[in-house]
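Re: the 77-residue chain
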Amino acid sequence: MALDPEAAKNFAAAAAIGVGSIMPAFAIGKLAAKAMESIGRNPESAGKLQTPMILAIAFAEAIAIYALVMALIIKFV
């Protein structure tokens, strides 16, 4: 039984986006949880935490976007 190249590309693209989006999702969740915990303990720190938190979320989301780009390249090239 031969492996269909199109099926292999579809599986590789699905694996790339699946694995590439799991860890950024965990990172964003943990980042937001720790920021909320920190603000809960010290409400005055909300202003200081907001900018670094949003920046870190953007960096984590960029990794998921890289995984999406790789999946699209695998799928269509």
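DSSP finds two helices and no strands in the chain.
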